[in-house]
Structure formats: structure tokens, C-alpha cells
Design brief:
The chain has helices spanning 3-16, 26-33, 81-91, 105-112, 124-131, 136-156, 166-170, 173-179, 241-259, 267-280, and strands spanning 20-23, 45-49, 55-59, 71-75, 97-99, 120-122, 184-185, 190-193, 214-219, 221-223, 226-227, 230-236, 292-294, 301-305, 318-321, 324-327, 331-334, 337-341, 346-348, 358-359. Helix 1 (3-16) crosses helix 5 and helix 9 runs antiparallel to helix 10 (267-280). The protein is an alpha+beta fold and 360 residues long. The longest helix has 21 residues, at 136-156. A hairpin with a 2-residue loop joins strand 10 (221-223) and strand 11 (226-227). The chain is elongated and about 70 Å long. InterPro entries: Creatin/AminoP/Spt16_N, Creatinase/aminopeptidase-like, Creatinase_N, Pept_M24, Peptidase_M24B. Residues 5-132 form the Creatinase N-terminal domain. This is Xaa-Pro aminopeptidase. Residues 140-343 form the Peptidase M24 domain.
């Protein structure tokens, strides 16, 4: 168990009025216990209690590490799992029981047969908010993952050549990540040429590169369990004045937003810094998504940098800054870094250049 992380979640539970929290997200359980289990359809849950040791409910098939700070309750396929769980919970004289936002209906409905609905509350914010503020170990792992991503980006642009397709480039990315020491992708890579980049979630296809195309890479890897994410937009052989203007607008918006990141700033106000630059240049309707997302054990974690999130930043938060301009049938430009909020301001985790680069 990671005692400091557990204490932070218990504090969040108290703020929610929750006595016990039945947590089922495997990555959150890994975050708190170090137990790395992929349960698939089987029941796997950690019960955090305001008093007493946490209880880990696990199938006998799962390989668990010894931990004296955990009470482990094992079950087998076919056992009445929720009856077993509620029996243990009743022993703790639970008042409000917190449940996981992602709890499958097959388990939640069974729990509701034994527990009054008014005594249940979604308690996931207690762990989501804790995960949103990285401790020293997590910060170093995130920085290491981004260092690999920087190295990889330098290799990826070398895959671009006359006659290549998006899909052909994308198929070569994993091998480069593995050579550089990553464990794999943190998400399926996005490679887009020319007008395809105007679709922010375009999947690589058979589009052939042509002169004057933008070349967008939105890529990330996983290293030591933690994710990286970065976007760079290049040009093949030439870039028109119009395309240069679009690119420099996005870069100015991105750098303006990064310069505004420091503790005590509202996330929505950081979004506004970039959005205002793009709007002033006449491309406001063409910036169609939030400015950024939180990241860690998952590529997209709870919380975002958007007009809808008014929380204050605090040291240890890590999120993306990724404005974009998308012009249908013409071009898409996005530039993305990950930033760590520090005591004084912010640290950019990506070092790869953002200067406009024409590949030849």
C-alpha cells in the first residue's frame, strides 16, 4: 500500500461523507496498492475504510503480491461475490457506501439488492482528484515517458518520404518506441497528411503524401506504467504563406497558454488564454475542442483544461496544452505539450522544437 496516497483518498472520502469506498478501477487500485491486475469480467475491488485495514476482494486466479497492510478476501468463479462483499461491509457498520463510477451493472444491481440506494454514493472523485496531483515518483516517471516521446518524434519525421501513406508511417512507430525503451503506445497514434489533419481524431489510412501537405503526429508511449502525449505538425517540402499563418497562430496560442500556467490559476482561464489568441486571428470557430486533458496512468484522466472546469491549478498537476485550428478540405494544425504545475509556475515535459519545420 502507498500510505500517503491512501490518506489523500480517505480525506476526499470524508469530504464526500463516505465511510467506505468500494473501488473497482484496476488502475486506481494499482495506484494505491501496487497490485497490477487486469480482472477482465471477474470481480476485483478495493474497499477503503475510514477505520481498519483496506480490504482487497480478488479472484483466486489473480496473482497478488504479499502486503501486510491489506486484508485480502479471495473468491472463486461461481461464488456469490456480492453477498461476500456486503457481509464484510456490514461488519464495519458502514453508513454511506461509496461506489466506483465505472462499476458494472452486473455488480451494482446485485449490490442494490442488499443495500438501500439512498445509502450509496459515487465516490470516484475521491480517487480521481488524488490521482490528478502527482507525487515525486509519478512526476519523474511522467518526465521519463516524455523524454522517450521527444526522442521518438525525432525518429518519426524520418519516416516521411515521397509516396508514403499515413498507414505505412503509423505501422512503424511501435518498433521505434520499443527500441527506445518504452512498453508500448499510450494510445493509438494519429498520423494525418494534408486535409486529413482537419479531423482531430483522424485514423491513419491509405492517403499518400504530397508536396505542401502538413504532416501531423499525435503520439504517446507508456514507460514504467505512465503515459506521454505530444503533437507536432510538420510540412512536406513546402508550406504556403496561408499555412504558415495558421501554424504560427497555433504556436502563439500554445505558448501563451503555457506561459500562464502557475498555481492558483483556474483551468478555464488557461483555456481562454489560447482560445483568445485563436479567436483574435479569425479562427475561433475552427478551434473545436478543449485546450487540454489530465494524464498519468491513463492518457485521459479526470479533469480537463476547458471552459467548463473552473478548478484552481496546484503543484503536481500534469495536463496537456494542445490548441488546434482545423480548416475543412485544407489543413489541420495542432501543437501539444504536457506541462507540470510547479510551486513557481510550470515545467514543460516535452523538449521537442515547436519551430515550423519543412521536411524534405
Amino acid at each position: 500500500m502507498n500510505g500517503d496516497r491512501v490518506k489523500r483518498v480517505l480525506c476526499g472520502m470524508r469530504e464526500l461523507g463516505v465511510t467506505d469506498f468500494l473501488l473497482m478501477d484496476p488502475l486506481s487500485i494499482l495506484y494505491l496498492t501496487g497490485q497490477d491486475v487486469r480482472p477482465m469480467e471477474r470481480f476485483f475491488a478495493l474497499c477503503l475504510r475510514g477505520g481498519g485495514r483496506p480490504i482487497l476482494f480478488a479472484n483466486r486466479l489473480f496473482g497478488l503480491k504479499e502486503d501486510p497492510d491489506l486484508e485480502v478476501v479471495l473468491h472463486s468463479d461461481g461464488d456469490p461475490v456480492m453477498a461476500l462483499v456486503t457481509e464484510r461491509l456490514h461488519r464495519g457498520n458502514v453508513g454511506k457506501l461509496g461506489v466506483d463510477k465505472g462499476m458494472p451493472a452486473r455488480f451494482l444491481l446485485s449490490l442494490l439488492e442488499r443495500w438501500a440506494p439512498e445509502d450509496l454514493i459515487v465516490a470516484s472523485p475521491a480517487v480521481d482528484l488524488a490521482r490528478g496531483v502527482k507525487d515525486a515518483e509519478e512526476r519523474e516517471r511522467m518526465a521519463a515517458s516524455s523524454r522517450v516521446n521527444d526522442q521518438a518524434m525525432g525518429r518519426f519525421k524520418g519516416l516521411v518520404h515521397e509516396g508514403v501513406t499515413e498507414a505505412e508511417v503509423a505501422r512503424q512507430l511501435l518498433d521505434i518506441y520499443l527500441e527506445l525503451g518504452a512498453e508500448g503506445f499510450s494510445f493509438s497514434p494519429l498520423v494525418a497528411f494534408g486535409a486529413n489533419a482537419a479531423d482531430p481524431h483522424h485514423a491513419p489510412d491509405g492517403t499518400i503524401l504530397k508536396e505542401g501537405d502538413c504532416v501531423l503526429f499525435d503520439v504517446g508511449c507508456r514507460k514504467d506504467g505512465y503515459c506521454s502525449d505530444m503533437t507536432r505538425t510538420f510540412f512536406w517540402r513546402s508550406a504556403s504563406e496561408h499555412h504558415r499563418q495558421v501554424y504560427e497562430t497555433v504556436r502563439r496560442a500554445q505558448e501563451t497558454a503555457e506561459a500562464g500556467v502557475r498555481p492558483g490559476v483556474r483551468l478555464c482561464d488557461i483555456d481562454a488564454l489560447a482560445r483568445d489568441v485563436i479567436t483574435a486571428a479569425g479562427y475561433g470557430p475552427n478551434f473545436t475542442h478543449r485546450l487540454g486533458h489530465f494524464i498519468g496512468l491513463e492518457t485521459h484522466e479526470y479533469g480537463d483544461v476547458s471552459p467548463a472546469d473552473c478548478r484552481m491549478t496546484e503543484p503536481g498537476m500534469i495536463f496537456s496544452i494542445e490548441p488546434g485550428i482545423y480548416l475543412k478540405d485544407d489543413i489541420g494544425v495542432r501543437i501539444e505539450d504536457l506541462v507540470l504545475v510547479t510551486e513557481e509556475g510550470c515545467e514543460r515535459l516535452n523538449r521537442y522544437s515547436k519551430e515550423l519545420e519543412v521536411l524534405r
